[in-house]
Design goal:
Number of helices of chain B: 9
Number of domains of chain A: 1
Helix content of chain B: 25-40%
Number of strands of chain B: 8
Strand content of chain A: 15-25%
Largest interface: A-B, 22 and 22 residues
Radius of gyration of chain A: 16 Å
Structural class of chain A: alpha/beta
Distance between the termini of chain B: 25 Å
CATH class of chain B: Alpha Beta
Oligomer: heterodimer
Shape of chain B: globular
Order of helices and strands of chain B: EHEHEHEHEHEHEHEHH
CATH topology of chain B: TIM Barrel
Number of helices of chain A: 8
Strand content of chain B: 15-25%
Radius of gyration of chain B: 15 Å
Helix content of chain A: 25-40%
Strand order of the largest sheet of chain A: 1-2-3-4-5-6-7-8
Order of helices and strands of chain A: EHEHEHEHEHEHEHEH
CATH topology of chain A: TIM Barrel
Strand order of the largest sheet of chain B: 1-2-3-4-5-6-7-8
Largest sheet of chain A: 8 strands, parallel, barrel
Number of domains of chain B: 1
Number of strands of chain A: 8
Largest sheet of chain B: 8 strands, parallel, barrel
Structural class of chain B: alpha/beta
Shape of chain A: globular
Chain lengths: ~200, ~200
């Protein structure tokens, strides 16, 4: 399960901190921090503050795109958007980080798998306002095609609710990623559990 | 790596092709190129950085990246230039080679001393003159600020902000090791000649 923060238009430092604190009571997840409105110094301070919290909770903190900030704040990984510094270069430069990438097409997915990445995010699978910039929903059939062709774990993203998890897993997804269900930080542990319960059923 | 004396650092602007600008600036004698493009994607920055790094190596000039320590690491640039809103110099120092050039923008002796304590190699002091390149609400520092700020930090000063042909020599006389320019080169019809003329003025 990947829990994403974010982040297009307003910075939500308070929410990210509350989510990181709530992870102490949650089953382990990958916590992906993506705050586009923060400058590098603010992002570094925020990540340095939450990295020990996330680490102690057994979850893994990944930072969007900036592997320098990930390394400097002692996060566990980096998550690359499609238009990032090339994945193979990131892999070589920051060897100890977990590294994943978002992809929105089969071409990008196949290209990404040859670069030594640990996992991919594919989507948007379903309709969601937060993923509208990444095009129309790709649907479950596209997800299935990608999962069949790609040899590394694929997480389904975009409009994922707990009820939609079994269909994604059935398509071959390793897991799912979501943002909106976790905007209420207080109920994050319960929401994570609900997602996990649908992965096992 | 050491900062050359009387160096011209050309910073890329938000509009020009940064590789072409760097090529012309280097042909004109710039000793340092700083890649700065706040609106670019990581992929664009990486592709430009690879090519500018190669051009700088050919000319034995320094190549540094603004803000993005990740891009500097990815292309093995000579260093980075950090603003007050970027990673602290100490964090960058821990990620880069021990001899990497780390510049920090400062506008006061207090910021300069902090930059020195965090391991900066030079300080970018500005803006010295009125400038339209960046939105600067504060008053220009003037050339008289260069020496005291440099002495406070015990670091070389690269002066920035509103520097052109008419005042470049004055900045050097006021104690700067070098000058950094954006529009004086990038907005010129002939960036190569503009760079050459600036180099001539700071070496007079």
């Amino acid at each position: 399960m990947i829990v994403s923060s974010g982040g297009e238009h307003l910075s939500q430092k308070g929410l990210v901190l509350a989510q990181a604190q709530a992870l102490a009571r949650s089953a382990p997840v990958i916590f992906q921090v993506r705050e586009k409105m923060l400058d590098s110094a603010s992002m570094w301070r925020l990540c340095s503050q939450i990295a020990p919290l996330v680490d102690n909770s057994g979850s893994i903190l990944t930072i969007n795109e900036r592997f320098d900030i990930a390394l400097a704040s002692k996060a566990g990984g980096v998550h690359l958007p499609e238009s990032s510094c090339p994945a193979d270069v990131v892999r070589k430069t920051a060897r100890k980080l977990l590294a994943g990438q978002s992809v929105h097409s089969e071409t990008a997915a196949l290209k990404a798998t040859s670069t030594g990445l640990d996992y991919l995010l594919f989507g948007p699978v379903f309709h969601t306002p937060s993923k509208e910039p990444f095009g129309p929903p790709q649907g479950l059939d596209r997800l299935r095609e990608i999962c069949e062709k790609v040899r590394i774990p694929v997480f389904a993203v975009g409009g994922i609710t707990p009820e939609k998890v079994p269909a994604c897993i059935e398509c071959g997804a390793w897991g799912v990623a979501a943002l909106t269900p976790f905007l209420d930080a207080g109920s994050l542990p319960e929401t994570v559990n609900r997602f996990y319960s649908f992965m096992q059923s | 790596m050491t900062l050359p004396r009387r160096v011209l650092c050309v910073i890329t602007d938000e509009h020009s092709n940064p590789v072409e600008l760097a090529r012309m600036a280097l042909q004109g004698g710039a000793g340092m190129v700083q890649l700065r493009r706040k609106t670019a994607s990581g992929q664009e920055l990486y592709e430009w950085a690879v090519r500018i790094q190669a051009l700088c190596s050919e000319q034995q000039a320094l190549f540094i990246v603004n803000d993005r320590v990740d891009i500097a690491m990815a292309v093995h640039a000579d260093g980075v230039h950090l603003g007050q809103q970027d990673l602290p110099a100490s964090a960058a120092r821990a990620l880069l080679a021990p001899d990497a050039i780390i510049g920090v923008s400062v506008s006061s002796a207090t910021e300069a001393i902090k930059a020195a304590e965090e391991g900066a190699s030079y300080i970018g002091v500005g803006h010295i003159f009125p400038t339209f390149s960046k939105d600067k609400p504060s008053e220009p520092l003037g050339t008289a600020s260069i020496r005291p700020i440099g002495r406070a930090a015990q670091l070389p000063v690269i002066a920035i902000g509103g520097i052109g042909h008419d005042n470049a020599a004055e900045v050097i006389r006021a104690g700067a090791s070098g000058i950094a320019v954006i529009s004086a080169v990038s907005d010129s019809d002939d960036p190569e000649t503009a760079a050459r003329e600036l180099v001539r003025r700071i070496r007079e």
